[in-house]
Amino acid sequence: MRLEKAYLSALDSGGEDIHFMFNPTELTFTGSVKYNDNQGAQAEKTGKSKVSFSNVNPSTVTISNILFDTYEDGIDVFQAHIKKFRDAIIFVPGLKRTPMYGFFWGEHPYMPRCVVENLTYKLTMFLADGTPVRAVIDSLTLKEADEPESTQSLSTPEVSKPQRLKTQPRKNKAAKSRK
Fold first, then answer.
1. Which of 43, 62, 155, 164 could form a disulfide with 28 if both were Cys (CB 3.0 to 4.6 A apart)?
2. What is the largest CA-CA distance in the chain?
3. Neighbours of 157 (CB within 10 A)
4. Of 120, 112, 99, whose CA–CA distance to 16 is shortest?
5. Neighbour count for residue 30 (Cβ, 10 Å)
């Protein structure tokens, strides 16, 4: 069996593919649902607030302890690897958002459409001249994103011109009664 590398695949022109140097040791998935407390409504027996469903929150996957090491090659680990992750959380003016990715590992689409929500990294080893050659991403959180909605079926309805209604002036009853 061939070793497959985990990677983030850029889904639009705002980013570039990001390949992991070493595969993750674990993936942590989170899903949640939002419920709202109904003000003034409570259960008769317990006195607890009644709740009503609001929405399903987007899922997240967190990848921890991602190692990058360029010591043997003597190249800047930030420029070679970490900068791509850093660019994933930078606003792209043409898109009006951050880049969109898919997270894959071999044939497994763990999160086919997502954004990078959180990135925490540290540089842990340096050459004598200060060049960083080892880095660890402590936490990379990817947040699920919806598929874009099709704009083909959306059309602007034709707006008709406003029409003025001709109205007759009201006759003042008080003026009539004086006559």
1. 62
2. 110
3. 5
4. 99
5. 12
- The DSSP symbol for 74 reads T
**Per-residue pLDDT reduced to its tens digit, 40-53:** 788 888 878 888 99
Q: In angstroms, rounded to a whole number, what is the distance separating the alpha carbons of residues 43 and 126?
A: 61
Give pLDDT tens digits for 53-70: 999 999 999 999 999 999
Q: Tell me phi and psi for residue 173, to 5 degrees.
A: -65, -35
Q: Is 50:38 a contact under the CB 8 Å cutoff?
A: yes
> In this structure, are residues 7 and 20 in contact, taking their beta carbons and an 8 Å threshold?
yes
Residues 17, 18, 22: CA angle, nearest 5 degrees: 145
Quick check: helix, strand or coil at residue 87? helix
The reply to whether the predicted model has a pTM over 0.85 is no
Return the ∠ at Cα 105 (arms to 101 and 111), rounded to 5°: 40
DSSP state for residue 97 in the 8-state scheme: B
Reported as half-sphere exposure (CB side, CA atoms, 13 A), residue 77 has a value of 24
- CA 112 to chain centroid, in Å, comes to 12
Scored b (16 or more CB within 10 A) or e, 2-17 reads: eeeebbbbbbeebbee
Q: Which residue has the tokens 């043997």?
A: 72
Token pair 């302890």: residue: 65
